[in-house]
Design brief:
Elements (H helix, E strand, L loop, with lengths): L36 H48 L2 E3 L2 E5 L5 E6 L2 E4 L6 E13 L2 E17 L4 E6 L2 E7 L8 E11 L6 E11 L10 E13 L7 E11 L7 H10 L3 E11 L2 E11 L5 E10 L1 H10 L5 H11 L12 E9 L2 E4 L2 E5 L25
Antiparallel strand pairs: 1-4, 2-3, 3-5, 4-5, 5-6, 6-7, 6-8, 7-9, 8-9, 9-10, 10-11, 11-12, 12-13, 13-14, 14-15, 15-16, 16-17, 17-18
């Protein structure tokens, strides 16, 4: 018996819309999707805004951390100076400068130090301590407004103002900075007295030195000034310049022992330029200095002097040399002077310091007083680097 024929039923209806298959070689739309311009703009702005917020937050934290460190340094200096002798006081401090240069505005600063004839006081209207965030070790101090120096060496109170009175320092881990740059411009007394500094720049820098290299410079001092006048100067100084280099390491510890160690290893001071011009008188010298076994200054240099009689007379009036020494030097050195048509005679002679005496050519000029190096420990401490001699 044969089976009945099967019924051919139609396929069920499809409720999904079928897309025609892509032509051969065509990419799927997901790979060629491109957002609209508006969406791209929103995404770009959002990413950049997020980056700006992160960078801004990090910079803000960094700036205020540096500002706090600068304030801590000021407080640390105040406390350290109070223990060592000098004192620094002020009325208030205000932080300014964000987001640029960090500035601490110090109102009514006052400082005092020294003892006896060397006692001194200073007070000013404003002091600004500033530092750039990108060079935090470089600190600048600006003194503005009326100021006053006091003490026996200044003859009482000495009020003055300056257009520029700035000290820039590169700080280090030691109490002394690696670089100290003093700039003065337009300084004048405000009491009608003789006090004037048209321009003065002093740069003192501690250089890296090794105890095994006696000829390597460890310190440099550059001074350049113009238009200097004061109570203790008989006539205004037109220009002054000094370039000196300390060769060899001066170690730490007591200064007399450090200088003896430095001398024993060939340490010297090279004076590359020393020049002073005062009216028609001019003094130019260059040479080498050091100390002897008794730590007295010794050295030799060549000096070119214009207007020697006037210079000796000024030194005599200032009490630096005795009258008979000035007269004898003038008589002896007159034979070595070279006459000039355009000014006073010029003299080229050696300057020699030895045995406690300073001589100019064959003439004895003055006796060099003994130096108490221990008393100068605080003043010359910036020349010393490293441990004491017994630890080298």
């Amino acid at each position: 018996m044969s089976e009945p024929p099967r019924l051919a039923l139609p396929p069920p209806p499809s409720y999904r819309r079928r897309r025609p298959p892509p032509p051969p070689g065509a990419r799927h739309p997901v790979y060629s999707y491109r957002p609209s311009r508006a969406l791209r703009t929103v995404r770009y702005l959002a990413i950049n805004l997020l980056i700006a917020l992160l960078v801004g937050s990090a910079y803000t934290a960094f700036w205020y951390i540096l500002a706090a460190n600068l304030r801590d340094r000021l407080d640390g200096w105040t406390e350290a100076w109070a223990h060592d002798g000098p004192t620094l006081e002020y009325e208030s401090i205000r932080l300014e400068g964000f987001p640029g240069r960090i500035r601490l505005r110090v109102a009514a600063p006052r400082a005092a130090g020294g003892r006896g004839a060397g006692a001194w006081t200073w007070e000013g209207a404003r002091l600004t301590l500033s530092s750039a965030p990108w060079t935090p070790r470089r600190v600048t101090v600006d003194l503005d407004g009326p100021q006053r120096l006091g003490g026996p060496r200044f003859g009482g109170a000495l009020p003055f103002e300056a257009e520029v009175l700035r000290v820039a320092a590169t700080l280090s881990g030691d109490p002394w900075p690696d670089l100290l740059d003093l700039e003065i411009a337009g300084l004048a007394g405000t009491d009608g007295g003789r006090l004037r500094i048209d321009q003065l720049d002093i740069v003192a820098e501690r250089l890296s030195a090794s105890p095994r290299r006696a000829t390597r410079p460890s310190f440099r001092l550059d001074i350049a000034g113009a238009g200097l006048d004061g109570r203790e100067i008989d006539a205004p100084v037109d220009t002054v310049a000094l370039r000196a280099r300390v060769r060899g390491l001066i170690p730490g510890g007591p200064l007399p022992a450090a200088l003896a160690w430095w001398r024993g290893r060939g340490g010297t001071v090279d004076v590359e330029q020393l020049s002073v011009a005062q009216g028609v008188a001019r003094f130019d010298a260059a040479g080498t200095l050091g100390v002897d076994d008794d730590l007295r200054p010794v050295g030799e240099s060549t000096a070119r002097i214009t207007g020697l009689p006037a210079i000796l007379e000024r030194l005599r009036r200032a009490g630096v040399i005795r009258g008979r020494d000035a007269t004898m030097a003038t008589i002896i050195l007159a034979a070595f002077a070279q006459p000039r048509d355009d000014g006073p005679p010029r003299l080229s002679v050696p300057l020699t310091a030895a045995g406690g005496t300073l001589a100019i050519g064959p003439a004895r000029l003055l006796a060099i007083p003994d130096i108490d190096w221990a008393e100068l420990q605080d003043s010359l401490g910036f020349l010393q680097q490293g441990p004491p001699p017994n630890e080298l």
